[in-house]
Write a structure and sequence with these properties.
The structure holds two protein chains of two kinds. Chain A is mainly β. Chain A is 0% helix and 59% strand. Chain A contains no helices and eleven strands. In chain A, a hairpin with a 7-residue loop joins strand 9 and strand 10. The termini of chain A are far apart. Chain B is mainly β. Helix content of chain B is 0%, strand content 53%. Chain B is built from no helices and eleven strands. In chain B, strands 2, 4, 5, 6, 9, 10 and 11 form a seven-stranded mixed beta sheet that branches. In chain B, strands 1-3-8-7 form a four-stranded antiparallel beta sheet, with no helix packed on it. Chain B is globular, with a radius of gyration of 13 Å. The chains are: A mainly beta, B mainly beta. At the A-B interface, strand 4, strand 5, strand 9 and strand 10 of A face strand 4, strand 5, strand 9 and strand 10 of B.
Chain lengths: 112, 114
């Protein structure tokens, strides 16, 4: 079983739609990152959160540590939002410094 | 501030050879982490260096190694390359080690092993 499960794996939306990407994890974590990867390969960190909710422009990320679940929402989606979105919890393992573990990603395509 | 830079951007090597990849972090950042991304396994953590010391290591064979210099620049080395080492190798830097700091990713080095 993967430690991090993302859904859906692929998502096609029309411009303007509200989008939700979900992430569930089985490990104990201190924080969780949402990453965006464009076709060229570069990765941008969108959010790092350890509780509650964060908002940047049209993007909103929420996390429920007790339920081990996080969601990324995109309001009024735009073709430039087309990318792979990756959930990356920060796992602390046995006293080590911990590291990011990654979901397989959600490939989002927004059509004009 | 300049972002994280990685060199080279693309590399083709033959099985059995070794390769060294370089990462220059954002100025002032002391932690550098390395990741491997493949279509089958996705993103996986390789190791993290902070103040020239390896702080953490992922589940990769000993053929994968790294180091960090006093100016925080980091290199990773893969010896005796295998076809399965073909991947995008990403490094990320942050000001300090520990969970509270956001990571800034470089553009990656795409390694092809033939």
């Amino acid at each position: 079983k993967n430690e991090v499960e993302q859904s859906p794996q692929n998502l096609t939306a029309q411009e303007g739609e509200f989008i939700t990407i979900n992430c569930s994890y089985s490990v104990g974590i201190s924080a969780l990152h949402w990453l965006q990867q464009h076709p060229g390969g570069g990765i941008v960190s969108l959010f790092m959160l350890s509780s509650g909710k964060k908002k940047h422009g049209r993007l909103i990320a929420t996390i429920n540590i007790q339920e081990k679940h996080s969601s990324l929402h995109i309001t009024a989606s735009h073709p430039r939002d087309s990318a792979v979105y990756i959930c990356a919890p920060w796992g602390d393992y046995g006293g080590s410094q911990g590291n990011l573990i990654f979901g397989k990603g959600t490939k989002l395509s927004v059509k004009p | 501030k300049a972002g994280v830079t990685q060199t080279p951007r693309y590399l083709i090597k033959t099985r059995g050879q070794q390769v060294t990849l370089s990462c220059s972090p954002i100025s002032g950042h002391r932690s550098v982490s390395w990741y491997q991304q493949t279509p089958g396994q996705g993103l996986q953590f390789l190791f993290e260096y902070f103040s020239e010391t390896q702080r953490n290591k992922g589940n990769f064979p000993g053929r994968f190694s790294g180091r960090q210099f006093s100016n925080s620049r980091s290199e990773m080395n893969v010896s005796t390359l295998e076809l399965g080492d073909s991947a995008l190798y990403l490094c990320a830097s942050r000001p300090w080690t520990g969970v509270s700091y956001e990571q800034y990713f470089g553009p990656g080095t795409r390694l092809t092993v033939t």
